Amino acid sequence: MKAINTLMALVTLKCPKCHKGNMFIHPNMYSFKSTNDMPEDCPCCGQIMKPEPGFYYGAMYVSYALSVALFIPTFFITVYFDLSYIGFLIFFSIITVILSPYFFRVSRAGYLYLFVRYDKSKATCKH
Ligand SMILES: [Zn+2]
Fold it and tell me: Which of 85, 87, 107, 123 is the residue whose CA sits 20 to 30 A from 53?
């Protein structure tokens, strides 16, 4: 159950420590001016969201893994519908463009989740 709660908090981009506070200031991830704006710390528990300069460079590896994970089902969908290579390329490009802002955010969240553990005593915020 703990793993499911952590996974749900991750995909909804909540703070890794309290699972309540939002990791990003603006909920609309398709607002490209503000898609990477993060608070300095969690509004609920005070967890620092930017632990050190350049911390989120490691999130690129998470993003790469997500892109590869997206490639595999996309490939099988194109095989199932018997699309050509060009059809696959167009389909994969469209899916990638649509999901890129989410992958950007969930990669950052996932990378922070690698280093910060859930603390039940911090989950008292009502947000
Ligand atoms: Zn928090």
Answer: 123
